[in-house]
Amino acid sequence: MQFRKRSPEEPEINLIPMIDVLLMTLIFLVLTTSFTHESALKVQLPQAHVKPPLKTQGIHVAIDAAGTFAVDGVVVADNERSLMRSLAAHARGAQTPIILYADRKAPYRAVVHALDAARRLGLGRIVFATKVRGKS
Fold first, then answer.
1. Cα angle, residue 50 at apex, residues 97 and 41 outer, rounded to 5°
2. What's the burial of 90, exposed, middle or buried (CB within 10 Å: 0-12/13-18/19+)?
């Protein structure tokens, strides 16, 4: 009996199933990420149920709809350094509370600047003032 020598077969990788899996994964990722619209979130801010107002001694910081600051009734230049100087001048120690009156249409940037200025000065007692429902 004569046996033939077989030629050694070259191992091969079949790429077609791997390409199918990759394409299905790509389609899945494209379809699932198209449903995330972070800018389209509708945020409803909580409403405050307030008790009779407390007479609080502290620094009164007001922010209007245009983002202008007023510290204890005095308008401050529209930058964080001026706000910090004014807060430092009115502060009577690290425990001095800050009462923040922000217009509901005030820019978020302005509120963050006020909070950051207070934090940098070490004034950690911050109160957000609200109005009682039905009163203007």
1. 90
2. middle
Contacts of 80 (CB under 8 A, 6+ apart): 113, 116, 117
Q: What is the pTM of this model?
A: 0.57
Per-position pLDDT tens, the chain of length 136: 677 777 777 778 888 999 999 999 999 888 877 655 444 445 444 456 666 555 668 888 888 888 888 888 888 887 778 888 988 888 888 888 888 888 888 888 888 989 999 888 888 888 888 776 655 4
Length of the chain: 136
Determine the Cα–Cα distance for residues 24 and 101; give it in Å rounded to an integer. Answer: 54
Going by C-alpha positions, the residue among 54, 45, 60 that lies closest to residue 104 is 45
Domain boundaries, the chain: 68-128
